[in-house]
Amino acid sequence: MSPLGAWCLLKLDHLGPLEWKAISARTGPALPRISETYDQLVDLGYVHDDPPGTVALTDAGQAAADALDAARRDSLAELLDGWDPEQHTELASMLSALARALGGSDAEEPREETEKAPASDARPEPS
């Protein structure tokens, strides 16, 4: 999965189902490959249109988003080497919330250093 695909999964996990045009608007004009990313996520079985025009996570997509969150949480835990989550359950809970929030935050929107494309990148019509 591409970094943009991971970002989309985390955004959907954080915000819930979104209209495709809202996802496209959040990625900004610097990401012309959002439609390719949508196709990749559909092919992987991670998202579906429900209702048409609205992108939602499938069970597999939710599992992938959960795995991404767990990886972030583990990375944060590594940074806090020596702490015991069983002794600091509140901190463990806060790390999980922080990892989830970081994955869906607007401050972490993906960017590319390529020539900017028009922001009107539309989702492909369902077949």
Automatic annotation (TrEMBL):
Q: Which InterPro entries match?
A: WH-like_DNA-bd_sf, WH_DNA-bd_sf
Q: Where are the transmembrane segments?
A: none
Compositionally skewed regions (Basic and acidic residues) per UniProt = 113-127
Identify the stretch(es) annotated as Disordered: 100-127
Q: Could you tell me the superkingdom of the organism this chain comes from?
A: Bacteria
Q: Which Gene3D superfamilies match?
A: Winged helix-like DNA-binding domain superfamily/Winged helix DNA-binding domain
| Protein name in the entry | HTH marR-type domain-containing protein
Species in which this protein is naturally found = Luteimicrobium album
Q: What is the lineage of its organism?
A: Bacteria, Bacillati, Actinomycetota, Actinomycetes, Micrococcales
